[in-house]
Each structure stands twice: as structure tokens, then as C-alpha cells.
Amino acid sequence: MSKKCPYEKKCGGCQYIDLPYEEQLKKKQKETNKLLSSFGKVKPIIGMKDPWHYRNKVHGVVAGDRHGNCFTGIYENRSHRVIRVDSCLIENQKADAIMNTVTSLMKSFKMRPYNEDTGYGFLRHILVRTGYHTGQIMVVLVTASPVFPSKNNFVKALRKEHPEITTIVANVNNRNTSMVLGDKQQILYGKGYIEDVLCGKTFRISSKSFYQVNPVQTEILYEKALSLAGLTGQELVVDAYCGIGTIGIIASKTAGKVIGVELNQDAVRDAVNNAKMNGIENIRFYCNDAGRFLVNMAEQGEKADVVIMDPPRSGSTEEFMDAVGKLGAEKVVYVSCNPETLARDVRYMKKLGYRAEEAWLVDMFPGTVHVETVVLLVRKP
Ligand code: SAH
Question: How many angstroms is it from 312 CA to the middle of ligand 1?
Fold first, then answer.
């Protein structure tokens, strides 16, 4: 590997893109070993055969030049200046092409890019999500105002160029915020969500739900997580920070019962639907803070055999981990996208009597410094 990214310096998203892929993997292994090897054995990193254009979710900030030409790009390192990006080495290429079509249509529709400083303009962001196995594509147009002028013609023109688009959503974000998506949205075309397949199960993904960005490596990660869990069909399993329910649903056939907990309402709605769609009856989802929920479970004297946890980059909380101990879980499978908070939490779990048996690294983010880790923690009396 080594392709040259023309935006590398200004973007800063892919710190390793200049390095041959083998080098990238070595560095990730070394960095993670440093953080985790004192706790237990760290296995060799699992890389990708083809580490390019893997991102199934693509986002662009909409901007324009003085001549009224519109484009999408990224903010230059922590500024409001938008760097034009027409294609990216790690993004899905069809998604990039669709973003370019949207911006090329803007001029003839007299649609102006939103300007963060003046507050004028209409289109703020474009988000494209693609289903790796299904080929379904969702386009989310984030606008500053709820009135979408000539929306039917715009949708028609976009679909003419890209008949592969399966749904188009208009999302309104009229706040001065770094969040991409606002609360209100309307479906302009299609079902308003896409579906994808992971480990033989079908999942519905709506615009605001979390979904892993690298579908090829996600299957490897989930299979690893479940083989570490070693379920026999009897266990009560908690899938904490469960998103749209992927891990819990895949685990359900080898578990007695699964309880999923997730804070994002839209994701929980997707999860409930996903269980139904896959005909799964031994799973329940709850919309709550994972820590609060586990504390409640423990206070009610409930028990859990296995806890699978996959918190955001900030990691988990002591409240959550204390509750895991009280629930008496024999095994904890910790999936993490941030080895630093993972190491912090593993250290805390050690005090609660959990020993890290092995850690597996899966390269979900080639080109970047990031790496996904899954650790098996076993309770030692
Ligand atoms: N396991 C899922 C999602 C992992 S991402 C998957 O593999 O797809 C982490 C998830 O944690 C996100 O869906 C996020 O919405 C959720 N989350 C963040 N903070 C949370 C909290 N305090 N309690 C419960 N869920 C939380």
C-alpha cells in the first residue's frame, strides 16, 4: 500500500495514510501493547486485505466559492474553513460520487451553501450511508431551514443521476452547533433508513443511529467477541451500549436471554425492529444510560452471566463497572475503539476481581491511528 492523499496535511483525519499498511499495523500493535500487555496477552492485530474505501458512512460539509460553485469538504484542522474534498481514500466511492452530484445540482436549483458565520444559506451537510451487503444507500441532506424549496424536483434530479439511492432524508439543523444532525427530519424518498447484513442477520439503520463504519472488519470483530464470550445457550447476556442491537441479536441464538441497553432513542427503536425482523424472541431492549440501568438491575437483585460492553471513545464509568461486579457476571467482553480508556477501565475492573485473559486487535480504521480492541475479562474469586 501507499497511495498519496492530497488533503492529508489539512484534514488530519488519517495520521497513518502515508505509511505502508504493514507499518500502520505494526504501529497500532505496538501502541496497544504498551497500554494493555501488563494486564494480559495481546494477540496479533487482524488487518484488512484491501484497506481502501472501507468507510460505509461519509459526511461532507457544504460550502461554495465566490463564483457560486458548491462543493463538500472538511473543516481545516479545528477551523471553520472548508477544504474541498472530491474523493477520499478511505470513503466509499459511490458515496463520494453522490455527494459531488448533490453539490453540482445546487447551482441550478439556486440552493445556497449554509455559511456558519453569517447564518445565511440552506444546505449545511450531506451524509451518505451505504449498506455493504444490500447495496442500499441513504442520503441525508442537512438543511438550515425546514422549508425545502422544490424538493420533489431536487429528489427527481438526484435519483436520475443515481438510481442506486434507496432513500433520501431531509434533516433540519438550525442551531449553532458542531453536531451534524438536528432533531427534526422528513423523508423525501424511500423508507427513511437502510438495511445491511452482518453475520447472517439483517439490520435496519436510521440516520441518527450508530453503526460500525467498516462492515468487513465488523464481522470479524463480532465473531471474535462472541467466541470470547463462549456462550452455551443458557446464559443471561447483557449487551451494553448496544446501538441498533447488532451484537446482542447475533449472540441471541447461543444465549438463554439477552438484554440490550442503549441511550439513543432512535437506535433503540431500530434495535427493537431488528429483533422482530430477524424473528428473535429472547431479547429485550431498554433505552437508558447503561450505568444507571445496570445499577437498577443490581439493586433489584438480578444476575447476569456475561456482559458485553461497547462504550463510546470516552469509555465506561465506575458506576457501570461496579454494577457489573454486583450482577455477578463471570465474563465481561469489552469492545473498545479507544485503547486508552480501555486500559483505564481494565485497571478498574482488576480491582473488582476481573482478570484480562486476552486482547484482540481488529483494524477497523486503516489509514488512521485508531484501532478496535476486544478484551475478555474473567472473574477470579
Ligand atoms: N455495540 C454497538 C454500538 C457501539 S457504539 C455496535 O457495535 O454497533 C457506542 C454506543 O453507545 C452508541 O450507540 C451510543 O449511542 C451509546 N451510548 C453512549 N453513551 C451511552 C450511555 N451512557 N449509556 C448507554 N449507551 C450509550
Answer: 6
In this structure, the residues whose C-beta lies within 6 A of any atom of ligand 1 are 210-212, 241-243, 246-247, 261-264, 267, 289-290, 310, 312
Ligand 1: residue whose CA is nearest its atom 12 = 243
What's the whole-model pTM score? Answer: 0.96
Q: Kindly tell me if the per-residue pLDDT of 2 is higher than 70.
A: no
136 pLDDT higher than 70: yes
| 119 Cα to the center of ligand 1, angstroms | 32
Active-site annotation holds for 337: yes
Q: Residue 304 corresponds to which cell in the numbers above?
A: 447476569
The C-alpha cell at 258 is 439477552
pLDDT tens profile 104-117: 999 999 999 999 88
For the CA of 242, the closest atom of ligand 1 is 1
Separation in Å, CA 4 to CA 18, 85, 94? 7, 14, 20
Statement: residue 1 has pLDDT above 60: no
Query: How far is the C-alpha of 316 from the C-alpha of 336, rounded, in Å?
Result: 10
Q: C-alpha angle with apex 312: 308 to 317, nearest 5 degrees? A: 70
Give the residue whose CA is nearest to atom 16 of ligand 1. Answer: 241
Q: Write the residue with the smallest CA distance to atom 11 of ligand 1.
A: 241
Q: Residue 177: its pLDDT value, please?
A: 85
229 alpha carbon – ligand 1 mean position (Å): 19
Q: What is the DSSP string of 47-90?
A: --SS-SS-BSEEEEEEEE-TTS-EEEEEESTTSSPEEE-S--TT
Average the pLDDT over 162-186 and give the result.
Answer: 95
> Is residue 227 very low, low, confident or very high in pLDDT (cuts 50, 70, 90)?
very high
Cβ-contact 248, 228 below 8 angstroms? no
C-alpha cell at 153: 424536483
**Residues 341, 35: Cα–Cα separation, whole Å:** 10
**Contact present, 105 and 96 (Cβ < 8 Å):** no
What average pLDDT score do residues 52-65 get? 97
Distance CA 239, CA 335 (A): 11
Q: What is the pLDDT of residue 71?
A: 97
